[in-house]
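step=encode ok
step=design start
structure_in=
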């Protein structure tokens, strides 16, 4: 499984984790393998899932801090939130990908999974984290 495929699986796992916030990383991983009918998760997916779940509050706070006045994270589509969390985690904590490439990958995930209006929104939010 290449990194793009690992990222797709991770985004879906994060979506699941956001639906069931009490799940541990191991539970999310097991449910993802079962739901997506995978033999196993890639090491990269596991690293991302575990890191994102561990840093969920921080990631959500950082995303929320860049929303327009009056907007709350709860108002954002759950798929878009999962895409933002994966990308922001990669931007901040991954040595596997350059920050600009993480944004590009997030935009690719938008093309595959999100409403077309989500792409400029995701790009705008993530641009705040690129140095």
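sequence_out=
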């Amino acid at each position: 499984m290449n990194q793009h495929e690992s990222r797709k699986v991770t985004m879906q796992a994060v979506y699941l984790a956001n639906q069931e916030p009490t799940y541990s990383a191991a539970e999310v991983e097991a449910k993802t393998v079962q739901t997506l009918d995978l033999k196993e998760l890639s090491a990269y997916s596991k690293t991302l899932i575990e890191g994102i779940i561990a840093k969920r509050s921080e990631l959500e706070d950082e995303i929320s801090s860049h929303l327009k006045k009056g907007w709350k994270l709860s108002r954002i589509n759950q798929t878009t939130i999962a895409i933002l969390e994966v990308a922001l985690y990669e931007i901040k904590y991954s040595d596997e990908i350059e920050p600009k490439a993480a944004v590009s990958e997030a935009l690719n995930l938008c093309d595959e999974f999100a409403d077309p209006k989500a792409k400029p929104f995701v790009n705008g939010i993530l641009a705040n984290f690129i140095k």
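step=design ok
step=annotate ok -> The longest helix spans residues 3-19.
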